[in-house]
UniProtKB/TrEMBL annotation:
InterPro entries referenced in this protein's UniProt entry, alphabetically: NAD(P)-bd_dom_sf, Sc_DH/Rdtase_CS, SDR_fam
Keywords for this protein: Oxidoreductase
Domain of life where this protein originates: Bacteria
The reaction(s) this protein catalyses: D-glucose + NADP(+) = D-glucono-1,5-lactone + NADPH + H(+); D-glucose + NAD(+) = D-glucono-1,5-lactone + NADH + H(+)
Subunit structure: Homotetramer.
Similarity remark: Belongs to the short-chain dehydrogenases/reductases (SDR) family.
The enzyme's E.C. designation: 1.1.1.47
GO molecular function: glucose 1-dehydrogenase [NAD(P)+] activity
Entry protein name: glucose 1-dehydrogenase [NAD(P)(+)]
């Protein structure tokens, strides 16, 4: 646990399941104030709010489409109205779908870009604007992916969105470092979440994915949440503009493991 996160206010988008849920619950354990977004189903949120309060934090849930300016502004105002400040913005919400690139429709392209890249931009912009206005040296954390550097056939829109998040994050980090605002990425590898549960529960599919991970196993959302907590804390106070890959070594060319090549 990082004592300096107690009482800080954190926004986590896409918090109803998977990595976002784990991040929100982790900040609850840090005794932070957590503003969580969900897209359409509010059912998981009451249980999460109760769990966060049980561990010493505070929480509220807000329905939001992260690709819409008015929804992002509503998030910022909710944080201010409920908790009086915003210290950490975690742009976690993201979507993906598999489509051969020659068959990818413009609508499917736009949907992924709008959520993954435009959503991260809007969240970053509004959080930074708030921090500048209130003199807060805060932290913005964007959820990227190993696919900001690893090409991914049939997911060209997803890979493009995460490549965009990489340079967006680096640019914002450079721009606002003099103001004490840090902007970083987390790049998860293969993580066991509801979006890929069916794939990873199939023994053959799981084995093929594990073969691409030097550490040999699929990660858990809580392992990504630990990275988010560190990047938000003062323990990482000299870190900005990076992508911290939490991927079991997936980005390290695993086919060369054991001296192959």
């Amino acid at each position: 646990m990082y004592g300096d996160l107690q009482g800080k206010t954190v926004i986590v988008t896409g918090a109803s399941s998977g990595i976002g849920k784990a991040i929100a619950l982790r900040f609850g354990k840090e005794k932070a104030n957590v503003v969580m977004t969900y897209n359409s189903n509010p059912d998981p949120m009451e249980e999460m709010i109760a769990e966060i309060k049980e561990t010493g934090g505070q929480a509220v849930a807000v329905q939001a489409n992260v690709s819409q300016e008015e929804d992002i502004r509503k998030l910022i105002s909710t944080a201010h109205e409920h908790f009086g400040a915003l210290h950490v913005m975690v742009n976690n919400a993201g979507i993906e779908n598999e489509v051969p690139s020659e068959k990818l429709s413009l609508d499917d392209w736009k949907k992924v870009i709008d959520v993954n890249l435009t959503g991260a931009f809007l969240g970053s912009r509004e959080a930074i604007s708030y921090m500048l206005e209130h003199g807060i040296e805060g932290s913005v954390i964007n959820m990227s992916s190993v696919h900001e550097v690893i090409p991914w056939p049939h997911f060209v829109h997803y890979a493009a969105s995460k490549g965009g998040v990489k340079l967006m994050t680096e640019t914002l980090a450079l721009e606002f470092a003099p103001k004490g605002i840090r902007v970083n990425n987390i790049g998860p590898g293969a993580i066991y979440t509801p979006i890929n549960q069916e794939k990873f529960d199939d023994p053959e599919s799981r084995k093929s994915v594990e073969a691409m991970i030097p550490m040999g196993y699929i990660g858990k959302p809580e392992q990504i949440a630990s990275v988010a907590a560190w990047l938000a804390s003062s323990e990482s106070s000299y870190v900005t503009g990076i992508t911290l890959f939490a991927d079991g070594g997936m980005t390290k060319y695993p086919s060369f493991q054991g001296g192959n090549g």
